[in-house]
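Budget justification note: compute hours in this period were largely spent on complex prediction jobs such as the one shown. Inputs:
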Amino acid sequence: MPGGMAPPGMILRETFANPAMPPSRDDDVIDRAAGLAPGDALHAARRFRAKVVEATQASHDALLEEPVEGLSSADRLRVAMHVCALAGATTLAQHYAERLAAFEAAGIAPPSPALPAILVFAAKLTTDPRLGDRAAIDALKRAGLGDAAIVALAQLVAFLSYQLRVVAGLRAMHATLESTR
Amino acid sequence: MIRRNGYTDETLEWRSWLAPVKVSDASPLQLEVLDESHPQSRTSPYYLTLVHQPLMLRHRSAAYNAIMYAPGGLPRAERELGAMVVSVTNGCVYCTSVHAQRFEQLAKRTDTVEQVFDDPRTAGTTERERAIASFAVAVTERPAALGPGDIAPLRAAGMSDEEIIDLLHAVAIFGWANRLMQNLGEPHGPHRSAAA
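Corresponding output:
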């Protein structure tokens, strides 16, 4: 992540991370959720597209950590957990649940009154993108979200659809490599 | 020009259901990210909507551009085939039109496009194209149930791990792109207004 983005990210990282273990390139959400470790053939094959690996992790971080008026990081984690569970992405759901638990333990994460409307939108967008319409956007506006918050929410949910598919595909590939060994 | 089953390879427009950022009001960061994202983004309602969150757009564009345009690995026409199959499977008329055109430019033919518009499940003029199309549908419709049986046809078609990952990325990122196009606005253009 570029240095210019450090301040908001840092605040969150301090909440979660062990200060003795600074985030490293190998600490990648997709690798962990797909069960890939440095040294695995597939871990190396992913690095053929190092820019994609980096931009994917940077998207994850920005989508959860960039300050957004009316959409807290904790509510974004609630959305992520809900979406991944709904899509059957168990290991990712667990990742988001753990991050949310750290917030909740710190007592800084009351759900917004808009959360029910946010979760309805997220579920529809995840299960069938064809269900999107202007009425769904208007419902978010009535719940108090502005245009910038709606863009952040749509980006997050759409990103999760990408992320959980990359993880699922890598797990399937990993299983074939394991079985031929 | 191809029009079949509600899809087209004609150029469509897209209008936002939100208020796109006005270029005259954009911050220096927003302008920088617009210019990184796409050559025509300053006049695109889609990018001007997404740039409400410039850093989220910056990383999305970095991922998208590396997935669809980086040299080496899976031939670009095959990445476009994956993108087009996902877009039809998700019912995204706008994305389908763009990536049908890209496929035609790269592959210099339209036969596969007609097949995808008719039925992405059976599309493909070669075994390798059929393997790509089936994989794209499977990743889109049942990610949680993917297994070795979904990978084997790609390997049988001669694809390396790096090429399969390229395809997986192209297919997965259209799960992302379609959802934005279908949920933040709608297409319009010659085909849509003629059909309406």
